[in-house]
Amino acid sequence: MSSPSSVLAILCLLCFLNGQGMIAKVAANSQVHIVYLGERQHDNPKLLTDTHHDLLATIVGSKELASELMVYSYRHGFSGFAAKLTESQAQKLSELPGVVRVIPNSLHKLQTTRSWDFLGLSSQSPSNILHKSSMGDGVIIGVLDTGIWPESESFNEKGLGPVPSHWKGVCESGDRFNATIHCNRKIIGARWFIDGLVAEYGKPLNWSTEFLSSRDAHGHGTHTSSTAAGSFVTNVSYKGLGHGTIKGGAPNARLAIYKVCWNVLGGQCSSADILKAFDEAIHDGVDVLSLSIGSSIPLFSEVDERDGIATGSFHAVARGITVVCAAANDGPSAETVQNTAPWIITVAASTMDRSFPTSITLGSNKTFLGLAMFTGPEIGFASLIYPESEGLDPNAAGVCQFLSLNKTMVAGKVVLCFTTVSLRTDITSASAAVKEAGGVGLIVAKNPSDALYPCNEDFPCIEVDYEIGTRILFYIRSTRSPLVKLRPPKTFIGKPLSAKVAYFSSRGPNSITPAILKPDIAAPGVNILAATSPLDALGEGGYVMHSGTSMSTPHVAGIVALLKAMHPNWSPAAIKSALVTTAWRNGPSGLPIFAEGSPQKLANPFDFGGGIMNPNGAADPGLVYDIGKAGYMQYLCARGYNNSAISRLVGQNTKCPIKKPSILDMNLPSITIPSLKNPITIKRSVTNVGAPESIYRATIEPPFGTIVSLNPNALVFNSTVRKLDFTITISAIHRMNTGYYFGSLSWADGVHVVRIPLSVRTEFLQPYDANDD
Fold first, then answer.
1. Rounded Cα distance, 157 and 246, in Å
2. How many other CB atoms sit within 10 Å of the CB of residue 221?
3. Predicted pLDDT of residue 443
4. Residue 231 is inside which H or E element, if any?
5. Cβ-based neighbours of 355, under 8 Å, separated by 6 or more
6. Are 100 and 205 found together in one domain?
7. 643 and 611, same structural domain?
8. Are 484 and 414 spatial neighbours (Cβ–Cβ below 8 Å)?
């Protein structure tokens, strides 16, 4: 029999439900709203959250219901919360003191890890380059990589017309790849090249993880191909994150697959095979080539056939094929950028306006945000440890890559560790050690980086920076029974997230030719959602998130395909110029672009070239800095290569002028002076690709410690004058050795701003030469 108090409780509950409506009814009529309260009034997250619950409770009737309706509590960058509210509740909240505004939640339609929306290419906007170019229809992108998984829905041919008439390639059958079945109007060609690798190393003994065909056993090539030209696929996510519709940069472009990298010997790509792929691709009629491939430091020269990319790309560019290559993943150290030939578009990797935050709540009620990729479930309050005693090596204790854990000490607990290496292998090995010891989660303190990788078997491993890691460690050391709660990550997009150059992205200056700026451009390359091979250990349902300049490269290749469709007569140099001169230096949101590293700093041209790619701007650049084959030959002469070496590269007898030309006069959309002592005058020319009648006037941001002047200061174009020359004179104010300083030169006509980066280092005391007396 019920007690009087319980009966009273039931009656009270019935009265409340009758007055407020059933909870289920409220939920059915509710919508998520954001209640914005402005700047935080204090720094106590727990107190802010309590305040938010109290405020919501005044409208919905109880703290219990407020807790159920609360979606998020914003308590770090600003104050506010998101909650499920009816229209009348939202109206009442908006009228309360201290509430700035209440707005309905809007649904963002995500596409290839949001990167295309981030770059201004929403498929819903009819005015952007995506639609003006018919999504790249008729353009052929050749991908030199690990092959393709043709059954992926990302390569469906729905809505595509006939194969472009200029295609002369073939689709080759092989191991589990049937040309008749697996090639279609999307994958119009597929070849594979391994003879160079076999000739170098012999035939590998174990082919259990490979296919002697264009089929992709690794997943890398499938990922890059779908990023460049994947078809629309709805309802895709990775571990529940980044949900939405994905596509490639040029969804109607066609793919020609050239498998040159193999999932054996640690993943190898022979230069001989690469050169053969270039050779075939040029013949086949591709318009764009995408290579997420690099070598290693030190680099080979441009005329060294061991660098099959530089050599092959020269021939491709000479025939009007734009070649896009990865800058490599050896950052943030200087002089690590690869694929440095000036005829290549070299791509750095940036983040975008999306992250996957997860909350870490300590037993002290302090909550920190980390980044992670795991599906859950939530880990309730579990014991938290930092392995610094228990007889462990004091030099290895707490270091992620050296974890050796006692099962009795770790079972059922979350482990905190620190690492300075930040390699994925070290994080995954640490998570494996924790899991093997019976732990339930891992918190890794490391250099800040947005690039994430899931740990094996969906184990909860959360990344934080050293500051948060240190604060968690202080908490562990300050209490006898430290506890922690770990929540699965959420997808967060838009402001206030700003783009950064990724920690791993290789940096300039160019170690082969310091006077040639590299990288040229940056594009999203962090946590990119795209198709993969089912054999990819990290894949889920045929899709995966990967990070690297390998991922940023096909972003640019896809946009190049759109530019080719709009401007079929533009040269590769003109396309490169359009990308560089219109790039964002402050990001699409207008926020400054930082470069991840130690310490984080504002990005400069050695981090991102001209900036982050701006596709819609590149479609209408106004002016371009163009270069033909003769210009590249002049560059080789300036580099000091002998006539026979240059003749071998260009395929014709070449004789350099007696007076060696200056590399600085190469008509690039950038100026880099590695050693400024005396005033230098540099030549450039620009071609008008905008309105015939136009006047461009110059704006100069001189690098610190320099004076920059132009002749002339204005360029006047008309129907008969499409190309004009000008000179730039740069002199040093400070007579001392310095590092590089950066500035820019811009031409503007009121509609276009054509900006090139300036990079200058003054050097009055030359490096010591042991051969000098």
1. 15
2. 28
3. 93
4. none
5. 371, 450, 492, 497
6. no
7. no
8. yes
* Amino acid, res. 465: D
Residues 150 and 282 in one domain: yes
pLDDT tens profile 502-516? 999 999 999 989 999
Q: Which residues contact 547 (CB under 8 A, 6 or more apart)?
A: 349, 451, 452, 453, 502, 504, 525, 526, 527, 528
Under a CB-based contact definition with an 8 Å cutoff, are residues 484 and 313 in contact?
A: no
The one catalytic residue among 137, 145, 287, 353: 145
Cβ–Cβ under 8 Å, residues 542 and 531: yes
Q: Is 765 exposed, middle or buried (0-12, 13-18, 19+ CB in 10 A)?
A: exposed
Q: Residues 532, 472: one domain?
A: no
Q: Which of 133, 359, 550, 731 is catalytic?
A: 550
* 142: region left, alpha or beta (phi > 0 left; psi from -120 to 50 alpha): beta
In order of 72, 451, 531, 538, the CA distances from 546 in angstroms are 28, 8, 10, 9
Give the end of a domain, one of 452, 486, 520. Answer: 486
What pairing do the DSSP bridges indicate for beta strands 601-602 and 594-595? antiparallel
Q: Are residues 361 and 304 in the same domain?
A: no
In this prediction, residue 150 carries a pLDDT of: 97
Residue 434's alpha-carbon distances to 72, 327, 468, 595, 643, in angstroms, are: 30, 35, 20, 32, 61
Does some domain include residue 752?
yes
Active site residue 216: no
Domain count for the chain, please give it.
5
pLDDT at 212: 92
Q: What is the pLDDT, as a whole number, of residue 495? A: 67
DSSP 301: P
Tokens at residue 617, please?
């701007």
Residues in the chain: 773
What is the reported pLDDT for 591?
A: 81
Token pair 């591709």: residue: 286
Angle, CA of 85, 88 and 94, to the nearest 5°: 80
Residue 488: C-alpha distances to residues 69, 155, 156, 371, 492 (Å): 19, 31, 33, 10, 13
Tell me if 197 is assigned to some domain. Answer: yes
Place of tokens 């995506």: 130
Rounded to a whole number, what is the distance in angstroms from the first to the last CA of the chain?
Answer: 108
Question: In this predicted structure, what is the pLDDT of residue 405?
Answer: 79
Domain assignment of residue 745, given as a range: 667-773
**Cross-strand pairs, 362:** 484
* Cβ contact 231:150 at 8 Å: no
536 catalytic? Reply is: no
Q: Omega before 509 cis (within 30°)?
A: yes
SS3 state of residue 761: strand
The 3-state DSSP class for residue 420 equals: coil
The domain boundary, picked from 462, 486, 510, lies at 486
pTM of the prediction? Answer: 0.81
Looking at residue 761, its amino acid is: R
Regarding whether 345 and 385 lie in a shared domain, the answer is: no
Positions in the chain short of pLDDT 50: 1-27, 76-78, 106-113, 205, 304-305, 390-392, 770-773
Tokens of 483: 């506890």
Residues 519 and 538 in one domain: yes
Residues 482 and 386 in one domain: yes
Does 52 participate in catalysis according to the annotation? no
Q: Are 568 and 321 in contact (CB under 8 A)?
A: no
Among 220, 223, 315, 567, the active-site one is 220
